[in-house]
Amino acid sequence: MANIRDVAKQAGVSVTTVSRVLNDHPYVTEEKRLAVEKAMEELGYYQNINAIHLSKGETRLIGVAVPFINHSYFSTLLNGIADQALVRDYNLVFYQTNYQEQEERKALEALKRKQVDGLLILSRASGWEAVDEYQEFGPIVVCESSNHTRIPCVSVDHYEAFRFGMRYMIQKGHRHIGYCIGRMNGTNSNLREMAYCEELEFIEEPYRKDWVFNNCLTIEDGKRVANEYMSLEERPSALLITSDQVAAGFRMEAEKQGIRVPADVAILGFDNHPIAEALDLTTIELPLHEVGMSLVEKVSSKNPTSAIYPFELVERGSV
Amino acid sequence: MANIRDVAKQAGVSVTTVSRVLNDHPYVTEEKRLAVEKAMEELGYYQNINAIHLSKGETRLIGVAVPFINHSYFSTLLNGIADQALVRDYNLVFYQTNYQEQEERKALEALKRKQVDGLLILSRASGWEAVDEYQEFGPIVVCESSNHTRIPCVSVDHYEAFRFGMRYMIQKGHRHIGYCIGRMNGTNSNLREMAYCEELEFIEEPYRKDWVFNNCLTIEDGKRVANEYMSLEERPSALLITSDQVAAGFRMEAEKQGIRVPADVAILGFDNHPIAEALDLTTIELPLHEVGMSLVEKVSSKNPTSAIYPFELVERGSV
DNA sequence: TTGTATGCGTTATCAT
DNA sequence: ATGATAACGCATACAA
Known about the structure:
Radius of gyration of chain A: 26 Å
CATH class of the largest domain in chain A: Alpha Beta
CATH superfamily of the largest domain in chain A: Response regulator
Strand content of chain A: 5-15%
Distance between the termini of chain A: 65 Å
Largest interface: A-B, 50 and 51 residues
Helix content of chain A: 40-55%
Domain HTH lacI-type (chains A, B): 2-56
Protein name (chains A, B): LacI family transcriptional regulator
Pfam family, one (chains A, B): LacI
Oligomer: homodimer
InterPro entries (chains A, B): HTH_LacI, Lambda_DNA-bd_dom_sf, Peripla_BP/Lac1_sug-bd_dom, Peripla_BP_I
Shape of chain A: elongated
CATH architecture of the largest domain in chain A: 3-Layer(aba) Sandwich
Number of domains of chain A: 3
CATH topology of the largest domain in chain A: Rossmann fold
Keywords (chains A, B): DNA-binding, Transcription, Transcription regulation
């Protein structure tokens, strides 16, 4: 592979001049520029990007740590991230963490070792301290409802969204309300739990453990919940469900088994994924594509700030 | 940022020795190793990965060009790719091309400029020549049914899968068969078209342009097709549909409008996505996760070969 | 077992 | 307007 020195020699100029034409710098005569271009052509020259990275100390790469990709919540975020990265001329390197701290650490190390200029964490298993520890090595933005003052977060306010959903159900006359959650111990899940408990307290209803369904991420999980729901002695009349995917699985399975939505049980999803419209699911729309774009904006600034995006109720026929 | 020379000086050894302990090379006394480790600790040293890349001439990065990510076909492939990349200690850089030749070119250029050691193309708008042109710069594997002898392909045999689907419908007594396609001019779409025409000829039925539905990628597209279907003067009794997503949209909308599946129209999806089970969709299962893993295996070998993965009929209640 | 010197390919500083 | 030279940080052939 021909390098910049070969080109310089071939063109009868210095490497500096070659570098100048490469980077469209001023102060190079048309004559020399042509000579350089001719030499590049002849030698089949192209720049080695690693050398540029080393020399410049930046890679125009943004790392994205995501638990798994084949999940509409994350892939929608990623779509927004990719769109904005394109605009800002960044490329993306992708770390599938599967909620393993060890894999999240790899992404953080990549930032430290200058593989990427910044890091986006879409969800995490590691504690805040682990993340905080790496902030000195470059901008990090987390996609979570912010309650950490030192780490920039861009997200929807999951706490408020969930509380809004609860109040909506209450206003519709429901008092026996259950809910589904993605995984225990996630930040967003904790916020939902908190909102749930507070609203329950508000209407003076007890917390019933068997009305809380854990590990709900996929359509299949929704089906599973439907079956668990049916085997309940006492059933809630309303359910707030992790996502539209899970809500869809729930609705399809429940109706197959003769449960009527919303007559027997009202359900509310989150995201406003196309599947929600197809299944006539009332849902709380989260602007995930926008959040994704915002994440890239934030991480590409020297001092990222936090931002919270609004949600919106989309009323359909499941409540 | 402390570099390897600083560590060497601090430890009172040469850079070579430091490099040796960094890379677990033999021939370094325990004493010096300790001194080096101590120095690294004191200076807060860590390796700069770009320097390693430049020096070694490899990045352990694999590029993945994908039209868009928020689509279950691609995100399932990507999930397999990421899983296998993890095993083989590769990271992934992600190029969202949106079927723009210009963006695909960027991914190819990244290979040429040594940003990535190999490139995976999940689907493309560019011609074979454009891809072929870059093969000299590193391994490229395309996720398509192979008919190009020079470019390695790993995929499901979409032609055979579609033909199999046609024969299945025919065997079920259908003679008026239509189909949905993702986009015209895609390799896989062309193969499906070919299989469709051949089987039509086989049963001596005419090709009816209004029974072929283009641009079908999402649930919404399925709904649209259902409406187009209903406005048809003469309707086919069976439909082969791009993917389970589209088939799901079709079924939901059609049934909402009083069309019975499979009594009025039999439908067959592809992929065996969870939504297919939820909606009782007969489908042709494609081992996309495996294909994804295989893509990484192939691209990480010096001379990638092609491979075709088998499909499997999953009979449910939509045919 | 250890160190010296050179290569990797580019950008940036500074002098001219 | 142009060029010599020093970074950038690491790996490695070769010598010792």
